[in-house]
Amino acid sequence: MNFLILSIIKAAVVAFVLLTALAYLQWLERKVLAHIQLRVGPRRVGPHGLLQPLADVIKLITKEDMMPSHVNKVFWFLAPFIAVLFALIPIAVIPFGTELALPAINLGPVHIPAITTAMQLTDLNIGVLFILGISGLGVYGVALAGWSSNNKYSLLGGLRSSAQMISYELPMALAIAAPLLALNTLSFRGIVDAQAGFFFGFLPKWTIFQVFPFNIISFVLFIIAAFAETNRVPFDLPEAENELVAGFHTEYGSMKFAAFFMAEYCNMVTVSCVATLLFLGGWHPPFPAAYGSSFLPSLAMAGAGVLCFLHAMSPARPFDRITLPVVGVAFFGLAGVFLIPAVALPLIPIVWFSAKVLVILFVYIWVRGTLPRFRYDQLMRFAWTFMFPVAVTNLFLTGLVVALS
Amino acid sequence: MDALLFMIFAAIAVVCGINLVVQTHPISSALSLVGVMGALAALYLLLGGEFIAAAQLVVYAGAIMVLFVFVIMLLNAGTEHKGRGTWATYAGVPLLLVFLGLIAIGITHHLPASENVMFGQFTKGSPLEFGRALFTTYLLPFEVTSVLILIAILGAVVLAKKEID
Predict the structure, then answer these.
(1) Which residue has the higher pLDDT, B27 or A115?
(2) Which of A126, A157, A309 is nearest to A235 (CA)?
(3) B36 touches chain A (CB under 8 A)
(4) Contacts of A192 (CB under 8 A, 6+ apart)
(5) How far apart (Å, rounded) are the C-alpha atoms in residues A235 and A225?
(6) Which residue ranges make up each domain of chain B?
(7) Cis before residue A95, ω within 30 degrees of 0?
(8) How confident is chain B (165 residues) per 10-residue block, as mean pLDDT?
(9) Minimal CA–CA distance to A145: which of A203, A231, A216?
(10) How many CB atoms within 10 Å of residue A315?
């Protein structure tokens, strides 16, 4: 019974954090893209447009949800659900940190026993394969949306997406297989545990620094394939807006349209989590605690607080003189919280994990702001004549090194 | 709990299987097949074959069926036109039931009695055990299958080349 209640609470927390993160990822993307293009981005709703995601959600929910008359009704209706479903499931096996140990609480009649739980919904011993399997099913959402819309642009988008997913799943699986040879486990928690410690006392034992240099090649291949799998620039052929209107989701509006966007962002988050766990050491810090890595979160928070106070000196808007110090004090409070050992122990791993995921997400957005799109034949040729042979060779060489050592 | 889950997924598999035959549109049939694959994966998982379950999802539901759907979409295959029902349409279902009954009788009477399958008893479904079995006990079938697949690929290339020339 305890297990059931605990699982429900964990699932609720993870779902809430994930969905909020998805909404704010959209905000982050618009802001970063805007600054890359020398604009300021959303600024009207809330300070620095921070309430923009909320406004977008309200707009999308209240819009008219109309069904075009020429679509295949069942599949057209089903497609966004499939896309979102298979995008949200993989988060269940992602571990976010070490263990959370809560002391027993006695509040009069209410008695909550002491709880020790892993910061993860479930630790499958085939976690990596599970993610590969489920994310492979996500393509049905896009393909069905394209086909059932009964529209040539949508159909082309769906076709491109299926072809792209099949082609890039191969190098992606091979790029994942190479580091797994050395790690010798398929459970994400086991994979992260195998990356604890440091070479020569300072270089973290992350997968990319093991089996030098083959795992670095695996990492680069994985990231490229991940961009293609999530339909992001420079591989966003399925929704190339200047060729295909909006690709597979041309005929969708309101929340169904938002569902495809949620699925895309959720896939981005999942892939970034997998890259962090598999290659970048999960929640292990980039340098030893002896050199003060545990104090870095506090330091960053305090720095943000100081920055807020500095900006409050020369406010851009009148009310910044009041709001910025308040935010600054909040940051200082957070910095203090991270100095309390009992709180910091479970929190600091989460901070490192989220920081690494955020860096990869930032690279996603950065690439979108920088690179042009591939042509379709270039995309296919790149997958089959470059990525695939390199991935196979890399797998063989990694296997050789692992077998010899 | 195990029996209930087995019933649910077995029912999904059977219903999807029937739907696969009954549907007239190729996309509906292909998606029913995906349903069968997914339900089978869940059944493997219940039996303790976690690696097989994941492979079933990755290979069949995730790769092969996506290819099927891709080809159906590419060729824009339309709804199958059914002619007027012949005697086979009406006699098919009873004959099938009789056939399945005969098979069931044959199995229960002529095969040696086996132990019941217990959920959660089988623990050798991990990738390690699976790989070891594949490369020691079942090495020959494994290699023969690989060669067979290679021949099929070569055959496809030869046929495609002939078309181009």
Answers:
(1) B27
(2) A157
(3) no
(4) A95, A277, A281, A282, A283, A284
(5) 9
(6) 126-165
(7) no
(8) 85 90 84 90 84 86 84 76 69 86 85 70 78 88 93 91 75
(9) A231
(10) 13
Amino acid at A88: L
For the stretch A180-220, pLDDT in tens is: 888 888 888 888 888 887 777 777 888 888 877 888 888 99
Min Cα–Cα distance to chain A from B88, Å: 30
Query: A-B interface: how many C-beta pairs under 8 angstroms?
Result: 73
What does A7-70 look like in DSSP terms, one character per residue? HHHHHHHHHHHHHHHHHHHHHHHHHHHHHHTT-----SSSGGGTTHHHHHHHHHHHS-----TT
How close B59 comes to chain A (CA, Å)? 8
Prediction pTM value:
0.85
Q: Give me A323's structure tokens.
A: 């709001």
Q: Which residues of A53-70 are buried (b: 16+ CB within 10 A; e: fewer)?
A: beebeeebeeeeeeeeee
Spatial separation of the C-alpha atoms in residues A319 and A308, rounded to whole Å: 13
Percent of chain A at pLDDT exceeding 90: 4
C-alpha span between A29 and A7 (Å, rounded): 32
A126 with B66: Cβ contact below 8 A? no
User: Distance, in angstroms, between A246 CA and closest chain B CA?
Assistant: 19
Cα-flanking dihedrals φ and ψ of residue A118, to 5°?
-75, 145
